[in-house]
Design brief:
The complex is a heterotrimer of chains A (321), B (254) and C (420). Chain B is of the alpha/beta class. Chain B has six helices and 13 strands. In chain C, the strands form four sheets. A four-stranded parallel sheet of chain C has the order 6-5-7-8. The chains are: A alpha/beta (321), B alpha/beta (254), C alpha/beta (420). The complex binds flavin-adenine dinucleotide (FAD) and iron/sulfur cluster (2 copies).
Chain lengths: 321, 254, 420
């Protein structure tokens, strides 16, 4: 009744970061509710993954051929069965491609309330409280839930993943796969790997963006490395594209692409209105510029006045391998 | 092939959003509404499918805001039928209520496929498309980037983090949450929109909707953010530390 | 699209309008073959209302050397005609989007082939058929949604006036004024444009002009959107603006933007809106000596004639008269000036096709022009069209002339001289 259930998301054989983020948070919540942290692991031959879920008290596995790869219909059926048998108080599901299909399906199917876009979860005086980042991050909504269970669909990166990467020996339990899995309307066919070719900067979570402050083409590999360390890609203001230092597909702005990454790190970009038009909706903008009056600082969340060449090597070093 | 595309109006983020006196909703008096951008992609994909396999596209929208302009714009782009759903809806309209109202309206229409935008900026309580599928009792796939239909089924691509995709067969009818149409949504020339305003008709149906399924809203508040950047000062060493701290806090680096 | 040589059909004999022509007839020094063209495509394009003059071209080529786009690429009405003659349809053709409607070709064309009418007419067909460059599509959508091409909040249209330091009255409150100042979009929203609006407000105030602005009631004049093929959008907002104008009493509309001047003078009358309209330089030139100047500027200044003020509306003198009266200004001319002025590249939709054009030209028109301005030895490039200030400032940087040339609106120079 007071247990916390986490949907353990895995993609092509690996648990995702979101899973660890939720497991870490789930453990903290379970401590408050006085219940257990239970991970729902759906799949086929996924037992080895349980070794990484030490933070959970218990892992409930459902194994079936139809669960081998994610399938919105099959996973919703299996997760519903787990929820019905365990009757947890809180269900944590990542707000990701898989989670989007599951959280709303479960809410509609079982008639239980759901909060999405969640960036904060707390229990205050026995009441579960969430904060959702709505309207493109412009307004936050604080909500509360009465009754059990309830579903919380959490944004990627909302909590630290470290807290979910703890050694331990959870109880492993296998639940029988529901019969309904024999009769599905959605069938998984195959994986399709993304095509090579240049990256699509509109789809990147992290963009390291360079402007004329980068000074010469020789300096580009250095920032490329930084982008790689941050798990992102390089984009640029127009002069860099004019100089043919990067292809047109990397241009941000009015006559380039509009981007909304989670991080936009602007290095040596002045912030002309035509550039701002393309990146002002980024969730987090950090600007480095030697000119304290550069207009980019009016749009950035954080600013650094200084020489980007002083900062860059140190930043890279601190980020490690 | 009958395709239904529910079109939603969402607050336009170009305007500054204000919170009303109750603290529990946006100040809607001055709110400007706009078509949910993902719905525009859903409409585009529907029109492309119609061009490929024939059939008709019906645009459905709940009453309120600038719903007529929204529907006429859909007609200008090529939608064949326009349906406005009226009813005594709760305000603010949450995803559950919207999905129930749409389900009520769509039940009475012919359809093989429903395409919705994968998400919207105001979906506090989940994806309208997925909820709608459940209220209609049909399957759904979200985050779809490619759709083909033949022999009563759809072959779709669902995208995951990092760009890898899963290919699925889906028996129709079904709801697909469209992430991106195969091409940029087409332009509706204003003279076509004006023509649609004169020539097209909007059918009206009524539906009911309960808001159950959402959490209780305590309050709305704006994230702390002053005008202009917060400056990070100190030696390059110290600044790098601060940046990494911020990135960790936001979960961008581990 | 390169021309397929097979489309050029050389013959000994053709029949035109029932008359047989042989190549014997077509000789100068030598016998030359005659050519037989399938004119279906040409007739289709010339059949579009407004585009009739396309068919009148007799390939004299006078337009090519004056065409600014040809200066940095490969263009001109003659070349468009030739492609049509060879059966290349202009509607899906990228060539359709290169013309800035600068009107230089019309000035020299003996046959009155008029790109100012041809371009919007053919582009309108292209827009209807869905051939719109994506950058432009976004601008159309922004304009329809927000009433300005920048996609800014319509509620903030008059926010610039808060920083003006002088009262900027609203027509809504005044109801009646001698001058209705139509500010237009870039001067309302673009950071550099806003600075020029503040400057003009100061000057109007200093002159004691009885004026008012429309504020949030003002909608884009949409002249450039019309020239880029969105006639419906133009009409939608023209009807709204005409309705708004009709609520107030005024004698004259003052415009900052020569594109708005064009809309009000040439297009609004067709929709029933007839007004006395002046560009701010025309308005200011006779009053310039009434201002007091505290500063001597010590600038060598060169002036860029905006296409839509000069060639389109014949105003070459007023801006020069103002500049010549400012203390310490030495006006030097670029060699391409007045009727022969070069285009900044922003007209006819060019403002919103920067990315598209980059694939078709060696350098931007604005960059070509900035180099010319630098050659005069001027420290200031003076402008009086809101598109130019952002285009030229950007071009000063991209041509590596930072620190050598400043770009200023004439009204900013006036305020600088006033010391206001
Ligand atoms: C119609 C039109 C369309 C346009 N479209 C686009 C577009 O889509 N995208 C776009 O980006 N631009 C566009 N532009 C160009 C735009 O106006 C600017 O010229 C351009 O964005 C400037 O790029 P930048 O910031 O890299 O260069 P600059 O403005 O030259 O800025 C360089 C910055 O680097 C800083 N700097 C220098 N050295 C260092 C150092 N060592 N460390 C830290 N900082 C340093 C300087 O202080 C300066 O602020 C367009 C312009 C026009 C007119
Ligand atoms: S100047 Fe006129 S007639 Fe001569 S080639 Fe150009 S368009 Fe044709
Ligand atoms: S109007 Fe100007 S840009 Fe267009 S074809 Fe004529 S000269 Fe060239």
């Amino acid at each position: 009744m007071s247990d916390v259930l986490v949907f353990a998301e895995h993609l092509q054989g690996n648990l995702t970061d979101s899973t660890f983020e939720l497991l870490g948070k789930g453990r903290e919540l379970a401590q408050t509710t006085g219940g257990h942290l239970i991970a729902a692991l759906l799949g086929k031959g996924v037992e080895p993954l349980t070794e990484q879920m030490g933070v959970a008290h218990k892992v409930v596995m459902v194994e079936h051929q139809q669960l081998a790869a994610f399938n919105p219909e099959a996973y919703a059926i299996a997760l519903k069965a787990v929820v019905q048998s365990l009757n947890p108080s809180i269900i944590l599901i990542p707000y990701t491609s898989m989670g989007m299909d599951l959280a709303s399906a479960l809410s509609a199917d079982l008639g239980i309330p759901l909060a999405a876009y969640v960036s904060e979860v707390k229990i205050e005086d026995g009441t579960l409280m969430t904060v959702s980042q709505m309207y493109g991050g412009k307004v936050n909504v604080e909500s509360e839930f009465s009754g059990n269970p309830k579903i919380v669909s959490v944004l990627a990166g909302a909590f630290p993943a470290e807290a979910g990467k703890v050694e331990g020996t959870p109880v492993i339990e296998t639940m029988e796969a529901p019969n309904a899995l024999a009769n599905l309307r959605v069938t998984f066919k195959q994986w399709i790997e993304p095509e090579g070719g240049d990256v699509d900067i509109t789809q990147q979570d992290v963009l390291v963006s360079i402007g004329r402050g980068i000074q010469s083409q020789e300096n580009i590999p250095m920032v490329e490395e930084l982008a790689r360390k941050l798990g992102g890609a390089l984009s640029a203001s127009r002069p860099i594209i004019d100089n043919k230092w990067l292809p047109k597909s990397r241009q941000v702005g009015k006559s380039g692409l509009k981007v909304k990454p989670r991080l936009y790190l602007a290095l040596g970009i002045s912030g002309a209105p035509e550039h701002i038009e393309g990146m002002k909706d980024a969730e987090l903008i950090i600007a480095v510029n030697s000119d304290p009056n550069a207009p980019i600082f009016e749009y950035a969340h954080y600013g650094v006045v200084g020489d980007l060449f002083d900062l860059l090597p140190i930043l890279k070093e601190k980020l490690g391998g | 092939m009958h395709i239904i595309v529910p079109l939603r109006q969402v607050p336009d983020l170009v305007e500054d959003l204000e919170i009303d006196a109750s603290g529990k909703d946006l100040d809607r008096e001055w709110l400007k509404y706009k078509m949910n951008e993902f719905d525009d992609h859903a409409l585009e994909e529907a029109l492309l499918l119609k061009e490929e396999v024939g059939g008709a596209v019906t645009a459905v929208a709940l009453d309120g805001g600038e719903v007529d302009k929204l529907l006429f714009t859909a007609a200008a782009k090529g939608a064949d039928r326009l349906v406005k759903v009226r009813g005594d809806f709760p305000t603010p309209l949450n995803s559950h209520a919207m999905a129930r109202a749409l389900a009520g309206a769509i039940q009475g229409l012919d359809y093989d496929l429903i395409l919705t935008g994968v998400q919207a900026v105001d979906e506090l309580d989940g994806q309208v498309g997925v909820l709608l599928a459940h209220y209609l009792g049909i399957p759904h796939v979200s985050v779809v980037t490619d759709v083909q239909v033949h022999d009563g089924k759809a072959v779709v691509h669902k995208e995951y983090a990092g760009g890898v995709m899963g290919e699925f067969d889906v028996i129709l009818p079904a709801v697909l949450g469209i992430q991106a149409a195969r091409q940029t949504p087409r332009y509706a020339p204003v003279s076509r929109v004006r023509m649609a305003m004169r020539k097209s008709t909007i059918e009206e149906v009524s539906a009911e909707a309960s808001a159950e399924g959402a959490p209780d809203i305590r309050k709305l508040f704006k994230p702390e953010k002053g005008a202009g950047a917060q400056m990070l000062e100190g030696s390059p060493e110290a600044v790098a530390e601060k940046i990494i701290h911020i990135l960790k806090e936001k979960g961008i680096v581990q | 699209m390169p021309v397929d040589p097979k489309q050029i059909r050389a013959k000994d004999k053709v029949v035109v309008d029932g008359i047989e022509l042989t190549s014997d007839w077509n000789r100068m020094f030598d016998q030359r073959p005659v050519f037989d063209y399938d004119v279906e495509v040409l007739e289709k394009i010339a059949g579009i209302p407004g585009a009739e003059s396309m068919a009148w071209c007799y390939q004299c080529a006078q337009c090519v050397p004056v065409c600014p786009v040809n200066e940095v690429g490969d263009y001109g009405p003659r070349k468009i005609y030739r492609r049509l003659q060879l059966g290349i349809d202009l509607i899906p053709d990228e060539e359709l989007w290169k013309c800035t409607t600068c009107m230089h070709c019309l000035r020299v064309c003996p046959k009155d082939v008029n790109m100012i009418d041809i371009m919007p007419a053919v582009r309108e067909e292209a827009v209807m058929e869905g051939h719109v460059p994506p950058e432009l599509q976004e601008v159309f959508e922004n304009t329809f949604e927000y009433g300005n091409p920048l996609g800014e909040s319509p509620r903030k249209r008059a926010d610039w006036a808060k920083d003006a330091g002088v009262p900027v009255p609203l027509m809504k409150e005044k109801k009646k004024a001698d001058i209705l100042w139509f500010v237009e979009c870039y001067p309302s929203y673009h950071p550099r444009g806003k600075e020029t609006s503040v400057a003009l407000a100061k000057v109007l105030h200093a002159l004691g002009v009885d004026f008012g602005i429309l504020g949030v009631e003002e909608k884009c004049s949409c002249d450039s959107q019309r020239l880029a093929g969105e006639r419906g959008l133009f009409e939608e907002f023209a009807e709204e603006n005409i309705k708004t104008f009709s609520k107030y009493q005024f004698n004259t509309i003052l415009v900052t933007d020569p594109h708005a001047l064009n809309a009000f003078k040439k297009e609004y009358p067709k929709l029933g809106g007839r007004y006395h309209v002046v560009h701010y330089t025309t308005f200011l030139a006779p009053l310039i000596d009434r201002l007091e100047y505290r500063n001597t500027l010590n600038y060598r200044v060169t002036f860029h004639d905006p296409c839509y003020l000069g060639r389109h509306h014949g105003e070459y003198d007023a801006p020069r008269r103002i500049l010549n009266r400012l203390p310490g200004v030495e006006l030097v001319e670029m060699w391409r000036c007045r009727q022969n002025s070069f285009c900044c590249g922003g007209g006819g939709g060019g403002m919103w096709l920067d990315g598209f054009m980059a694939d078709h030209v060696r350098e931007r028109l604005s960059e070509n022009r900035v180099r010319e301005a630098v050659e005069t030895g001027a420290q200031v490039l003076a402008v009086c069209c809101p598109y130019e200030i952002s285009r030229f400032e950007d071009a000063v940087k991209s041509t590596g002339n930072e620190g050598k040339l400043m770009v200023k609106d004439i009204i900013e120079l006036v305020v600088e001289a006033m010391g206001a």
